């Protein structure tokens, strides 16, 4: 049973006439543990109508093909897995609004999964205004629905943690796959708004994956989760921040595209009780859902204006402090600063789409230190992260950058530029890790790529 608080009815109609039920797969690109898909099947069965699942392939926002490849690999898995369940799937290039409105003309009901960013909400409102069918939104991107967890922007992880822990039993129920609805419909003769495309054909036109370490898709996500449980969970609490090894779960890109369910991860990981499990699940649920809370309730999440409380006050106080270095965006993007550790992190991000979590915090704080003002630093950190990171343009990205500027943190010792915002430096990296080994690892990686090309 799907908890009712996962479901929001945005538009209802007096008629249930229609030839089919639509599920627009948008934020959650998977067939396993997908509340929106299972709800759509339930509705199709109840109305005795066939179910059509579709996704819209928009042009990428910038020239980076890595996000497009990851997305297409995900849709390739979705298509194959839905065929096994006898559910038709179409990948349609074009405008999400135009395609959805065209398909909805003959639909009894449109169901979609919930997105949290401004563009997701604005698009859904625009579609709702002209939609002839009913519209239901199902939240499957988080364990505890964002509005159920809190009705306001939370100050920190500590304030949200108590609320989520209280609700976990209610929202962590296993999700059983439903049988397909009535699929007796002439899909082969169906007139599409735009001709469907095959992910496999589009993938063939992209450049090779190169140094990108992850294949996209829910099948690859399942393999990565199994590997994490078997090889990396033990010791995770102590090793996860060490950039010299490969101790992270590697699940963040799959969570970003909804190619794996956080609920499934939670139910599998919690079977292994340990301190490592507690640390990992706190990151998976509390920290990740704090990010969703942030972008939901803070309308300025994508700009420096989002910073408030002590952080805004102290950064404004130190706005005019002399900076030890000032770098233009192009030099930052190419990893051409005086700091070899920062450069290695930026180059790894640029060429692989991945950066160790601890270094991402250091990376963001140094951008604050090496730019003219906090507004410029915030904008550039978001631009570089969203352009290159496989898990970019996601609530976690926006909350992660905001954290570097003091959001969700507490005051520390006062320093130039930072004020009382938490400070990080290269000496701290050298004390904590064999950080020189990390720079050598990145250098070898890039040298290998140069030889191959």
Give me a quick take on this structure:
By secondary structure, the chain is an alpha/beta fold. The chain has helices at residues 35-47, 65-84, 96-104, 118-130, 146-149, 157-171, 199-204, 218-232, 236-239, 252-256, 262-269, 275-297, 309-317, 329-333, 340-352, 357-369, 374-388, 395-404, 426-432, 435-452, and strands at residues 7-11, 20-24, 51-57, 89-93, 107-113, 134-138. Strands 1-6-5-2-3-4 form a six-stranded mixed beta sheet, with helices on both faces.
Written overview of the protein:
This protein has 453 residues and is an alpha/beta fold. Helix 16 crosses helix 18 (395-404) and helix 17 runs antiparallel to helix 18. The chain has 3 domains: 1-141, HUPs (Rossmann fold, 3-Layer(aba) Sandwich), CATH 3.40.50.620; 142-175 and 220-297, Serine Threonine Protein Phosphatase 5, Tetratricopeptide repeat (Alpha Horseshoe); 304-448, Orthogonal Bundle (DNA Cyclobutane Dipyrimidine Photolyase, subunit A, domain 3). Helix content is 50%, strand content 8%. It is built from 20 helices and 6 strands. The protein has helices spanning 35-47, 65-84, 96-104, 118-130, 146-149, 157-171, 199-204, 218-232, 236-239, 252-256, 262-269, 275-297, 309-317, 329-333, 340-352, 357-369, 374-388, 395-404, 426-432, 435-452, and strands at residues 7-11, 20-24, 51-57, 89-93, 107-113, 134-138. The protein has a 6-stranded mixed beta sheet with strand order 1-6-5-2-3-4, with helices on both faces. The mean pLDDT is 94.
């Amino acid at each position: 049973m799907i908890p009712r608080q996962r479901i929001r009815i945005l538009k209802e109609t007096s008629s249930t006439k229609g030839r089919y039920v639509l599920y627009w797969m948008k934020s959650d690109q998977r067939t396993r543990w997908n509340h929106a898909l299972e709800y759509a099947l339930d509705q199709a069965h109840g109305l005795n109508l066939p179910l059509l699942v579709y996704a819209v392939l928009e042009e990428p926002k910038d020239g980076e093909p890595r996000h497009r490849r990851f997305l297409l690999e995900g849709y390739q898995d979705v298509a194959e897995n839905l065929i096994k369940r006898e559910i038709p799937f179409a990948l349609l290039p074009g405008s999400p609004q135009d395609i959805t409105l065209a398909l909805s003309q003959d639909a009894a009901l449109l169901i979609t999964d919930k997105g949290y960013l401004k563009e997701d909400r604005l698009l859904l409102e625009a579609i709702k205004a002209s939609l002839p069918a009913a519209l239901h939104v199902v939240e499957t991107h988080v364990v505890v629905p964002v509005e159920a967890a809190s009705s306001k922007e939370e100050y920190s992880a500590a304030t949200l943690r108590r609320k989520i822990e209280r609700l976990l039993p209610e929202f962590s129920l296993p999700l059983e796959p439903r049988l397909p609805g009535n699929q007796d419909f002439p899909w082969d003769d169906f007139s599409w708004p735009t001709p469907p495309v095959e992910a496999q054909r589009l993938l063939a036109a992209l450049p090779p994956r190169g140094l990108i370490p992850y294949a996209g898709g829910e099948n690859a996500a399942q393999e990565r989760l199994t590997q994490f449980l078997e090889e990396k969970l033990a010791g995770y609490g102590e090793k996860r921040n060490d950039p010299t090894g490969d101790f992270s779960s590697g699940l963040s890109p799959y969570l970003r595209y909804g190619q794996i369910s956080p609920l499934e991860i939670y139910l599998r990981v919690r079977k292994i009780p340990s301190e490592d499990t507690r640390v990992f699940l706190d990151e998976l649920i509390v920290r990740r859902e704090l990010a969703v809370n942030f972008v939901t309730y803070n309308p300025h999440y994508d700009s420096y204006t989002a910073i408030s409380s002590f952080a805004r006050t102290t950064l404004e106080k130190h706005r005019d402090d002399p900076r030890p270095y000032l770098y233009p965006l192009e030099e930052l993007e190419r990893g051409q600063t005086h700091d070899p550790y920062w450069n290695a992190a930026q180059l790894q991000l640029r060429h692989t789409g991945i950066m160790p979590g601890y270094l991402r915090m250091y990376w963001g704080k140094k951008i604050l230190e090496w730019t003219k003002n906090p507004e410029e630093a915030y904008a550039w950190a978001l631009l570089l992260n969203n352009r290159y990171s496989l898990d970019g343009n996601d609530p976690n990205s926006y909350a992660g950058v905001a954290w570097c500027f003091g959001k969700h943190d507490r005051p520390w010792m006062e320093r130039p530029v930072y004020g009382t915002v938490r400070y990080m430096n290269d000496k701290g990296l050298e004390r904590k890790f064999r950080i020189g080994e990390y720079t050598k690892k990145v250098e070898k990686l890039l040298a290998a790529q140069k030889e191959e090309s």
